[in-house]
Amino acid sequence: MKRLSSVIFDVDGVLLDSLGPHLQICEDKNREYGLGLSIPSPGDFKKMVRQGVKISPMKYFFEAVGFPSDYAEKAFTQYKETFMRDYAPKPFPQVGDMLSKLTFAGLRLGIVTSNVRSNVDAALGPRMRFFQPECILTKDDTATESKADTLLLAATRLRVETIDTIYVGDQPADWRAAQIARTNFLGVSYGWGISEEDDEFPVVRNIMDIAE
Q1: Residue 198 has pLDDT above 90, yes or no
Q2: Dihedral (Cα; 51, 56, 62, 68), 10-degree rounding
Q3: DSSP line for 154-195
Q4: What pTM was computed for the model?
């Protein structure tokens, strides 16, 4: 493989330790609405993701854990208003060190995520400086829900071929998007849905291994 010129990151489960907070808001809204659901544990949720259950954008996350569609829509509206105030996830340890190491190596960094820009900015804070401003693509920036199309847009904005980029994700759906976009892929096993047992693509177990 020729030398890569850029690295594109998913955010939740890759840069942010956010699965727990997302399940917690589901539990709280479940109680608030009196739905009587049994919200899955992180381990059970990861199994659902590996089985192909759609969880993004966030309305589908609520539906995946059992919310009826109308309640999922209501919860999604409240999620956008309160999540970063009441459930703010934190970056995984050493995220800044990893991004700094990649930047020092001459790689250009971008983001492709289904999360909204305000959440990403608030959670990553000063670490946002490592990303190319024109290649921070969030739910607010594109009209499509297709990550594959957004990866193509990211390459266009960076003025590189998709084969010269690598997408770092934590779900099988991220890998499928990279395949469609003809982008290299690196999975992380500490996130929302990829296991060390996956052998279709390279997998790393911790943040600093991304840089390696």
Answers
A1: no
A2: -90
A3: HHHHHTS-GGGEEEEESSHHHHHHHHHHT-EEEEETTSSS--
A4: 0.90
